[in-house]
Amino acid sequence: MPDGADHQQEYIRDRAKEEGVDFSGLSKKDRGFREGREKLRFNGQFSTGETFAASENKGEANFGIIKDGKEVFNFKDLLPEGYKFTTPEHWINLDESSADAPFDFKTDPTKFRQEVQGIWQCGDKFISVGKITSLQDIVALLHEVGHSRENPAELRQAQDIGDTKREAEISSQLERKAWAEALRDVRKIKEATGANVLEGFQDADDLDKYINTNMATHRYMAELKTSGTIRNVLQMLDIKTIFGTPTINKIDNLFDKKKPPKK
Predict the structure, then answer these.
(1) SS3 5
(2) How many CB atoms sit inside 10 A of residue 3's CB?
(3) What share of the chain has pLDDT > 90, as a percent?
C-alpha cells in the first residue's frame, strides 16, 4: 500500500498537471546525495569569469565565488549568526543527545532525516542543502537564506492551535518574503563580485516561472493541510475507491496566486 509521502507526491503531480505547471526545471531530490553516498561538489563558471564553487567538509557545506583563483565572496556571510549549511553527512552522523541537535530531530530522528536530509530547507540554526547540478540552484540556496532571517513565531502559534487556514496565509507571506530576500542578495553578490548569479536562467520570464512553480508546490501542500490534517486526507485518498475521492479545498489567493485580502 502506498505511504503518505507517495500520496502527497501523487496529489502534487495531479494538481500540477491540472494547472499546467511544469516541474521539470526544479531541483531534483537525488537519492544518492540524500543518502550520503554522493558528496556536494560543483563548479560553475559565469560569463564574467568568476566561478561558483560548492563543496562540503564533515557535513558542513561551503559556497563561494572564486575570482582570479581567490575566494571573493562566501555565502555564509549572508547567514544570521549561528547558522550553518548542512549536508546529509551531518544528519547521518548526528546523535540525538548532541547539544546542537534540533528539537524535532531529538523527538524523531528517522522522520526528521526523511523530511530534511538532502532537501533544501531552513530550520533552527541550519539550512539543509540539496544537490547542486546547475547555476540555477544558487537561487534555491538564496531562497533558504532568505528564510533564515524570518521570525517564525506567528507561524508556530498557528501550527500549535491547529489553525491551518492562518498557517497557510502566514506561510504564503513568508515564502514571498524569502524570494524577495533572495533577489536582494542577488544584487548584493553582483555588487561585491561582479558575478550575476541569475545566469542560469534564460531571461526574467524563465526566473519567474521557476519561482512560481516552487510556490505552486507549497500551495498544493497547503490545500491538503487546510482540508483536514494531512494524515486524515491521505488516509481518505488511500481508500477513495470505497468512499469516493475526498473534497479538498482549492486555494486561489495564496503563494503563487493573487495577494490575500488585507485585514
Answers:
(1) helix
(2) 9
(3) 52
- Over the stretch 204-247, which tens digit does the pLDDT of each residue have? 999 998 998 888 888 888 888 777 654 454 554 554 444 444 45
Residue with cell 501542500: 221
C-alpha cell of residue 6: 507517495
CA angle 122, 89, 42 (to 5 degrees): 80
Q: Cα separation of 176 and 22, whole Å?
A: 20
Work out the widest C-alpha separation in the chain, in whole angstroms. Answer: 65
> Which residues, given as ranges, of the chain have pLDDT below 70?
1-7, 24-29, 152, 154-155, 158-159, 161, 228-263
The neighbouring-strand residues paired with 85 are 127
Distances, alpha carbon 109 to alpha carbons 34, 92, 101, 128, in Å: 15, 10, 10, 15
Ranges assigned E (strand) in the chain: 42-45, 51-57, 60-67, 70-74, 84-86, 121-123, 126-128
What DSSP element (H or E) covers 238?
A: helix 230-238
Q: Is 132 helix (H, G, I), strand (E, B) or coil?
A: coil
Cα 177 to Cα 165: distance, rounded to the nearest angstrom: 19
pTM: 0.83
Encoded amino acid at 195, one letter: A
Q: Report the C-alpha gap between 198 and 207 in whole angstroms.
A: 8
Q: Is the dihedral of CA 125, 105, 142, 19 positive or negative?
A: negative
- 106 φ, ψ to 5°? -65, -35
Q: For residues 134 and 225, what is the distance between their CA atoms, to the nearest angstrom?
A: 32
